[in-house]
Write a structure and sequence with these properties.
Elements lengths: L12 E6 L4 H5 L4 H10 L8 E5 L5 E7 L3 H4 L6 H7 L3 E6 L4 H13 L15 E3 L7 H19 L7 H15 L2 E6 L2 H4 L3 H7 L7 E7 L5 E6 L1 E5 L8 H4 L7 H15 L5 E11 L11 E3 L5 E3 L7 H13 L5 E6 L3 H7 L4 E5 L2 H14 L3 E4 L16 E2 L8 H10 L8 E5 L3 E2 L9 E2 L4 H12 L2
Parallel strand pairs: 1-3, 1-4, 4-5, 8-10, 8-13, 9-10, 12-16, 13-17, 14-15
Antiparallel strand pairs: 2-3, 6-7, 7-10, 11-12, 14-17, 18-19
Helix pairs in contact: 4-5, 5-6, 6-11, 9-12, 11-16, 14-16
């Protein structure tokens, strides 16, 4: 599915966007017939109201959408997406005083409202297409929308059809689309090429574990994205209860999100050198499964005591981060559906991130507000370092006690990045639990749009 604006030469129907406080004045500019119609229907410009405007001989003359007030709008985003989902099929244009970032957010929301996951069941397509206003970078918004659609598709696909092999295929298709190069290390070759923890986590599954390595761009700053690609997580021998296993097809949400971000970067031709690393595994149970109390030696040489096989994401990321850090890079970013602790802390709608770079943190905070992609900085709290040091090995993958689970996971990952001047880690949820405008229930990207907007400030582009 490709999300696009209406053709530039399309004949369009006006959609009037009216704030509550301006509704009375706006009604005075309407034809007497339309003013009477809107008065009869009780239209008052409240947020989310949609009324169609009748034309001659039963034709549709336009639509009017309530835009509420600042207080109501602050409780959500993509407010015009609800209208997009309810309008009859046709090509539309906006009549609005919105401009700048607010207009861009609403245009993106309109595009995203057209997303449908229809792989297994036919879905009614949205018929209301919007013509991009003059002066708007429509290509940028389409690239962002389609990057998000890719992320959603990958997360929404169940593990039977999105195991390590299928994730590899999806990454190869993305590389082919943008002229990127890609390589894969699979199965026991992970051992001969020194990725022991990726191999240990994935060796019990029917499909072999693998490390996927994509490169694009030949000039500019070096950016490496590392995404957790655990295509299904049973918990391993520390088996999850059924209720906790229900959403584990989304445990590759970090990989899906970095691939969506990579699409945005490549489609827009951002002038940088991009590398994307995805350790793709299934954490399963068989006679070859790794065990609690095993001690694994990582690619970096650090030993890790396994105190819970359900804390596997940080293990596969550790080997991939070590590889990323072995070559010169200006910035390394890891994204993972890593801990339940992060969801307890900030809920499903906010992407918590960790970094020691004040420049990156400031750029992300500003970008998140600008593009409506909420993130929140969490601390690399140094006194907690001792919590991940078990004594019998260099590191503990699952400290006892349950405190600060997201922070200790981030500190664990930071141990595998030494040389990159900037490192960021995102502990995302990757799922929209209830439907909202432009965000249907299901897989969701988090942090990618904020990162895309922040990259110029972060990397000096």
């Amino acid at each position: 599915m490709r999300l696009t604006f209406a053709p530039k030469d399309a004949t369009t129907i006006p959609v009037h966007v009216v704030e509550e406080s301006a509704c009375a004045a706006w009604l005075e500019t309407c034809t007497p017939e339309h003013a009477a119609w809107l008065a009869a229907t009780g239209f008052g410009g409240r947020l989310g109201e949609v009324q169609l405007l009748p034309g001659a001989k039963g034709a549709l003359a336009g639509a009017v959408v309530g835009y509420g007030n600042a207080s109501a709008r602050a409780r959500g985003r993509f407010h015009l997406a609800k209208a997009a989902e309810s309008l009859p099929a046709g090509n539309y244009h906006l009549e609005t005083s919105l401009e700048g970032d607010a207009l861009a957010e609403e245009l993106l929301g309109w595009l995203l409202s057209g997303y449908r996951f229809d792989r297994y069941k036919a879905q009614k397509a949205q018929g209301a297409l919007l013509k991009a206003p003059e002066g708007v970078d429509a290509a940028r918004l389409e690239a962002i929308a389609n990057g998000e659609a890719l992320t959603r598709d990958l997360i929404n696909t169940p593990a039977a059809d999105m195991g390590p092999e299928a994730l590899e295929d999806a990454m190869f298709r993305l590389a082919a689309e943008h002229g990127a190069t890609i390589d894969a290390v699979r199965g026991d070759d992970l051992l001969s090429q020194n990725f022991p923890m990726i191999h240990a986590v994935g060796r019990a599954a029917a499909q072999a574990p693998r490390l996927l390595d994509m490169r694009w761009g030949s000039a500019g700053p070096r950016l490496t994205l590392v995404g957790k690609g655990v295509c299904f997580d049973t918990g391993g021998l520390n088996l999850k209860p059924g209720a906790s296993m229900g959403l584990m097809k989304k445990d590759m949400g970090g990989a899906a999100t970095v691939l969506g971000l990579a699409h945005m970067i490549m489609a827009l031709g951002v002038p940088l050198q991009l590398r994307v690393l995805v350790p793709a595994v299934e954490n399963s149970v068989s006679g070859g499964a790794f065990r609690p109390q095993d001690i694994l030696t990582s690619r970096k040489g650090l030993t890790v005591e396994i105190n819970n096989t359900d804390a596997e994401g940080r293990l596969v990321l550790a080997d991939a981060l070590t590889l990323a850090d072995e070559e010169e890079s200006d910035c390394i970013i890891s994204m993972a559906t890593l801990t339940g602790a992060a969801r307890v802390a900030v809920g499903p709608d906010i992407a918590p991130f960790y970094t020691g770079s004040e420049t990156a943190a400031g750029a992300l905070a500003a970008a998140a507000v600008k593009v409506g992609d909420p993130v929140w900085r969490m601390p690399f709290h140094e006194p907690y370092e001792k919590m991940i040091e078990p004594g019998i090995a260099d590191l503990d993958n699952a400290p006892a006690g349950g405190f600060a689970g997201s922070i200790t996971a981030a500190l664990f990952l930071r141990r595998f990045v030494d040389s990159a001047p900037t490192y960021l880690h995102f502990d995302i949820y990757g799922w929209q639990p209830t439907a909202a405008p432009a965000r249907p229930k299901g897989g969701a990207g988090q942090g990618a749009r904020a990162l895309l907007d922040a990259l110029p400030a972060m990397l000096g582009l």
